[in-house]
Design goal:
Layout: H1 6-18, E1 24-25, H2 27-34, H3 38-55, E2 58-63, E3 69-74, H4 78-92, H5 107-110, H6 113-127, E4 134-138, H7 143-153, E5 157-160, E6 171-177, E7 184-190, E8 199-207, H8 211-221, E9 226-236, E10 250-259, E11 264-269
Helix pairs in contact: 1-3, 2-3, 6-7
């Protein structure tokens, strides 16, 4: 790359870091990239670090030693996360989201990349300090959220299938009971999708009693994997604690009431803000 003015170099370095979260970047990478001395690069990184941390957008970690460098850790302030949760809640409370049977239409929100990216940043804040190898979700509506989270954590995404595909190769399949319908379903995961003994972050768009998430936890046991955490975009608050199949999870919004007759929906920020 041709030599840049310092102002241009700062902009380019910032973009380079933002596109590589949770990745150690040696100082020599920047020094060679911009034809600059390491001392100049260190001064630039100190400026970027200050701007990042004052703006509440994350942390720039400095790692010492021969294999050291810098690592960008995306983080969202509590105030920013709460504003997101309130905005999400307001959108979910629109009366025309109520479907027959008391279901809630959410696909349009899950299809908004900007919205999912913000949710992914919040999950990256909640789980960023944990030792995680992969992000997992079950097809299909949780996929945008899982990829947004994986991008912020710089982790691969593993998809659990409801129906086994021949193109997946050999797979492990289990039956699980849906907590919301008490009916039996099947989910499967390709043996090549994930190494044994992986540490997994489970992400899903909606959780009622937790049957689907518990199914993924049971499936992971077949891979001798460990559940590092569970993040859900929206949880149902209408489930009794006795019916809830899991208690250790992070939610960004909680659906507290749906009245199909009056077309009233009530949503509030999730338990992320109680942690």
């Amino acid at each position: 790359m041709k030599k840049l003015k310092r102002s241009a170099r700062l902009v380019e370095m910032t973009q380079y870091l933002l596109s590589r979260p949770h990745t150690v970047i040696p100082l020599t990478t920047f020094a060679e990239r911009y034809g600059a001395a390491k001392s100049s690069i260190s001064e630039d990184l100190a400026i970027i670090k200050e701007v990042f941390e004052e703006g509440g957008s994350g942390e720039l970690q400095t790692l010492a030693g021969a294999a050291g460098g810098v690592k960008w850790i995306p983080k969202v302030s509590r105030e920013h996360a709460l504003a997101f949760a309130e905005r999400l809640s307001n959108q979910l409370e629109q009366p025309d989201r109520i479907l027959p049977g008391g279901y809630l239409y959410m696909s349009d929100l899950l299809g908004q990349p900007a919205l999912m990216n913000e949710a992914g940043k919040i999950f990256a804040t909640a789980f960023g300090n944990m030792d995680i190898d992969v992000v997992m979700t079950v097809e299909t509506k949780g996929i945008p959220l899982a990829y947004a989270t994986g991008a912020q954590l710089n982790l691969p995404v593993v998809l659990v299938r409801r129906d086994h595909q021949a193109t997946e190769g050999s797979a492990v399949s289990i039956n699980y009971v849906s907590g919301s319908h008490k009916s039996l379903h099947t989910m499967s995961l390709s043996r090549r999708a994930m190494r044994e003994h992986s540490r997994v972050l489970i992400v899903d768009d909606f959780m009622k009693a937790g049957g689907t998430v518990q199914g993924m936890i049971d499936l992971l046991a077949e891979f001798n994997a460990t559940v590092a955490g569970v993040g859900v975009l929206v949880e149902s608050g209408s489930v009794d604690s006795e019916e809830r199949l899991l208690t250790d999870y992070v939610s960004l919004a909680q659906l507290t009431a749906v009245d199909a007759k009056s077309r009233h929906i009530s949503v509030k920020p999730g338990n992320y803000f109680d942690l």
